[in-house]
Amino acid sequence: MSSFEEAETEETVTCLHMTFYHPCQEKMMFRCLNFCKREQVRADETAKFGRDSNVCRYNLMDTRVSRIQFSLQFYRKLNSAEFCFEIKNMSKKTKLIVDQTELGYLNKIDLPWKCIICFGDYQILAEVQEGESMDYFETHLHLAEVPILQERCLPSLQPIPENSVSFLFPSQGKSPIEIDENES
């Protein structure tokens, strides 16, 4: 047998991609984050984000950020092979918004596989890339040039009144016409 055949099967690693944006990022609040390089985190370790470099693995150099802003815990769902992250707001002063869910102090939820995390003026796009390793996960941090909420072009949550539909499509004053798929 060749050494290739005897080699252990390569295990994939869950990776949490996080893209950061702040309107004043030229003030270097992200200078302590390691962008564009994957970083391994032990599975039993809680990844903390905040300004206290003695406690937080990911430091945000901004006095408006809490000592510990939020934490991420890697875990495996019960009776499943699926790995997930749980996000917990650790700030007593600032609410954490995960997509449209507002988290107060010590509130936690499962992190959706793709979501936007907001607090203060910070916007973070989080995307989970699934893996198999139980020993560790990876983080891969990126810096956004434009606001994430603007870049994603999220639809407005404002309802459109029924009577304004005719203004959106002025040429269509008729009701829909049903056509049989066999007609040409």
> What low-confidence regions span 5 or more consecutive residues with pLDDT below 50?
153-175
The helix count comes to 3
- Large-scale geometry: globular
Strand order of the largest sheet: 2-12-1-11-10-7-8
Q: Could you give the count of β-strands? A: 12
* Main sheet record: 7 strands, mixed
Pfam families: FHA
Subcellular location: Cytoplasm
Domain FHA: 48-120
Organism: Anhinga anhinga
Write structural notes for this entry:
- The relative contact order is 0.22.
- The protein is built from 3 helices and 12 strands; from the N terminus they run H-E-E-E-E-E-E-E-E-E-E-E-E-H-H.
- The strands form 2 sheets. A 7-stranded mixed β-sheet has the order 2-12-1-11-10-7-8, with no helix packed on it. A 5-stranded mixed β-sheet has the order 4-3-5-6-9, with no helix packed on it.
- It has helices spanning 3-6, 148-151, 165-168; strands at residues 15-21, 39-42, 47-50, 58-59, 70-76, 83-89, 96-98, 101-103, 108-110, 114-119, 122-129, 136-143.
- Helix content is 7%, strand content 34%.
- The model is unreliable at 153-175 (pLDDT under 50).
- Strand 7 (96-98) and strand 8 (101-103) form a beta hairpin.
- The chain is mainly beta and 184 residues long.
- The chain has one domain: Sandwich (Tumour Suppressor Smad4).
- The longest helix is centred in the N-terminal third of the chain and has 4 residues, at 3-6.
